[in-house]
Amino acid sequence: LIAKVSEMEEKVLKFEREEEKARLLKEAKLQKEKSKADELADKQREKDSEKKRRDEEKAAKKLEAAKEREEAKRKKDEEKELEKMKKKQELEEKENKRKA
Length: 100
Prior knowledge:
1 helix, 98% helix, mainly alpha, rod-shaped
């Protein structure tokens, strides 16, 4: 009878160990999957952050280029206006010399 009880206890203990082992394996697998998912999410966040940074840099460069074009246009217009004024002044001086 004692042998049967011991045998039965052994079976129960073995079953419990196997159950615990299976639970631990399942838990480890879930933790590994979670870690992998977290890692992928981190990589995606980094990728998104990098893309956002590049997009912001690109927008800043476009804005800077637009400002430079506007400044160049303004200078060109000023130069044209100055040239017109010089020509007008030269014509007036020539006209004044003829009248004199």
